[in-house]
Specification:
The complex is a heterodimer of chains A (296) and B (317). Chain A has 2 domains: 54 residues; 228 residues, MetI-like (MetI-like fold), CATH 1.10.3720.10. Chain A is 75% helix and 0% strand. Chain A is built from 12 helices and no strands. With 317 residues, chain B is mostly helical. In chain B, helix 4 packs across helix 6. Chain B is flat, with a radius of gyration of 25 Å. The chains are: A mainly alpha (296), B mainly alpha (317). Chains A and B meet through helix 1, helix 3, helix 4, helix 5 and helix 6 of A and helix 1, helix 2, helix 3, helix 4 and helix 6 of B.
């Protein structure tokens, strides 16, 4: 009736059967989960492919020399994106020039001066918050300090907004890279009589050069595609203007204005702009990764 | 410079001018970050003050948004922000987990780096591109295939028939959540992958040694070991989703009412600010209300991101 009265060999055979069935079930579950994970990864890769494909599909047709030689024009008159491209480059460059040195110094402070202090952990925490904070809020912030008081949108306000985004990215990578430098390297330099700042600049920066450059490249890539913080600061400008104290065009904002318009040639130009910006940003990202790849 | 050549005695005079200046610059800029974040909070709070004063706490749940009568409230956009972000996480977490599991335990060694980079590139694509892709590629698919299919399938299920009811325009809360999910997948997946990689090999090898399958190792060793950090990664994704602006603006349909169906248009704090800002003259009550919304968004994201950092903090083993 129960298992206990079965003769011994029969019980052993039954146990083996159960064990086999159980192990088959466990392997089946394992295989199913693995298949689902493969599926999830394929979904992720398909999404990337779909985005790149639709950009290429719709963007390449509109590519031409006129895109780089003509400014934005009214619909139907074969305008280009020259002012937007130049505006983006100018604001990204100024934003990086302001933000990167600040980020570098703060990263240095965290890694070399305030590694375990309370101020250090507070600054590190706030910088990480800033890193993930909604970029639209940075636009609103710069609006209240640089646009409203001076009664006008300006390229410089846009650059400052981008700089605020650059800072925490550079802080993060700089600190991480400096922490990888072995203490013995610093001690060797100090033993030679070098003051601390020369140790940092001539030993640590040099050893962490590739990593720091990677951080700056990633920051450039990130801000060159930012739209939300520019909407309230440099506003966008459909005319040619390189004045930093006037509203300034930028590629993302122009894409935003054109993509939502009712004119086919504007929508086409938006796709061209999107294509340029995406491949530019992805190119920078890949370059940054190659720079950081461990040398064989 | 000349100070370093002084020979007057041992290390006493070693803190030369360069040292002092460099330390001061580093420390000063450290304080600057602290001030910067405070300035962001204060500027949004001060800018939103007229609105908070006019509407009081009621602003938080009022569903008004009427420039004619000058009545503004944050209720609808807070609701939209929370609903789209929560839905986005619901869609994104399983996929991100699958990708992270695949990349750490399943994929052959040569495949891990390239596939990992491809997923990371998904995080690098600017938000505006997701907006365009969503609007021109995903919205038609949603409107013509997914939404009709969902409403047909769940037409007779009580709660779901309301959630999946209404006109299938293709835009709306569900589409916004879908695009947000795509945008946060790479963040969550990358964090989970890095966290899974911290599990000591000995633990996993012991489990394999007693005959566990890969999934059993994942479930009984890796997840219990890393669950706090995994939550941190999910919160990081939530922080991203809450403040996402451009992509949502393109696809959510932008209407200021509490939606009953997931197909209905809605708005989020960020999309409302982006859309209404151009029509808000400086000094107006409307602009102040937008800044007040910004302040609320900042508070919500700050809490989420702070929790995320707390959970992701490396712990002593």
């Amino acid at each position: 009736m129960s298992a206990a009265v079965l003769p011994l060999p029969a019980a052993a055979a039954r146990d083996a059967r159960i064990a086999q069935r159980l192990s088959r079930r466990r392997k089946l579950i394992d295989r199913m989960v693995k298949a689902l994970c493969l599926l999830a990864t394929l979904i992720g890769l398909t999404l990337l492919a779909s985005i790149l494909f639709s950009l290429t599909w719709r963007g390449v047709g509109g590519l031409g020399l006129h895109v780089f030689t003509t400014s934005t024009l009214p619909p139907g008159s074969h305008g280009g994106l020259l002012n937007a491209i130049v505006g983006s480059i100018v604001q990204t460059a100024i934003g990086t020039l302001i933000g990167a040195p600040i980020g570098l110094m703060v990263g240095t402070f965290l890694a070399e001066y305030a590694r375990d202090s309370i101020l250090g952990s507070v600054v590190r925490f706030l910088s990480d918050v800033l890193l993930s904070a909604p970029s639209i809020l940075i636009g609103l912030f710069v609006y209240t300090i640089l646009v409203e008081p001076f009664h006008g949108f300006s390229g410089i306000a846009g650059s400052v907004a981008l700089a605020v985004i650059v800072v925490p990215i550079v802080v993060r990578t700089t600190e991480d890279m400096l922490r990888l430098i072995p203490t013995s390297l610093r001690e060797a330099a100090v033993a030679l009589g070098a003051p601390k700042w020369r140790v940092v600049v001539m030993i640590c920066y040099r050893a962490a050069r590739d990593g720091i450059a990677t951080g700056i490249l990633l920051a450039v890539a990130r801000v060159s595609g930012e739209t939300a913080p520019l909407l309230f600061t440099s506003l966008g400008n459909l005319n040619w203007s390189t004045s930093l104290f006037q509203p300034m065009a930028s590629l993302p904002v122009t894409i935003y204005q054109y993509a939502g318009s009712a004119f086919n040639d504007w929508v086409q130009l938006a796709w061209v702009g999107a294509l340029l910006i995406t491949f530019g940003v992805l190119g920078l990202n890949i370059a940054a990764r190659l720079l950081l790849r461990p040398k064989a | 410079m000349s100070a370093s050549t002084n020979t007057a005695g041992p290390s006493q005079g070693r803190r030369n001018l360069g040292d002092l200046l460099f330390a001061a610059a580093a420390g000063g800029l450290g304080w600057f970050v602290l001030l910067l974040l405070s300035a962001i909070v204060v500027s949004l709070l001060v800018g939103g003050l007229p609105s908070f004063r006019a509407f009081g706490l009621h602003f938080l749940w009022s569903t008004d948004w009427n420039p004619v009568t000058q009545r503004f409230g944050a209720g609808v956009s807070i609701f939209g922000t929370l609903v789209t972000s929560a839905l986005a996480l619901l869609l994104a977490v399983p996929i991100a987990f699958g990708i992270a599991f695949f990349l750490t335990e399943i994929a052959p060694e040569w495949m891990r780096r390239p596939v990992g980079i491809a997923i990371e590139l998904l995080a690098a694509i600017p938000s505006i591109i997701y907006g365009m892709w969503g609007f021109f590629v995903i919205v038609p698919i949603m409107g013509q295939m997914v939404m009709p299919w969902l409403s047909d399938t769940f037409a007779n299920v009580p709660l779901l028939s309301t959630l999946f009811g209404g006109a299938p325009f293709g835009t709306g809360i569900l589409t916004a959540a879908l695009i947000l999910a795509v945008m946060v997948i790479p963040f969550i997946a990358a964090t989970m992958r890095d966290v899974f990689a911290t599990v000591p090999a000995v633990y996993k090898e012991s489990a394999y040694g007693v005959g566990c399958t890969t999934w059993e190792v994942m479930r009984s060793i890796v997840i219990p070991y890393t669950h706090i950090s995994v939550m941190g990664g999910i919160m990081l994704g939530l922080g991203r989703a809450l403040g996402e602006t451009m992509a949502v603006t393109f696809v959510i349909g932008n209407a200021n009412r509490i939606a009953s169906s997931l197909f209905d248009p809605g708005n989020t704090i960020a999309s409302l600010v982006a859309l209404e800002f151009p029509e808000s003259p400086a000094g107006s009550l409307k602009l102040s209300s937008l800044l007040a919304l910004g302040f609320i968004l900042f508070v919500i994201s700050f809490i989420v991101l702070a929790v995320s950092r707390l959970l992701l903090r490396p712990r002593p083993v």
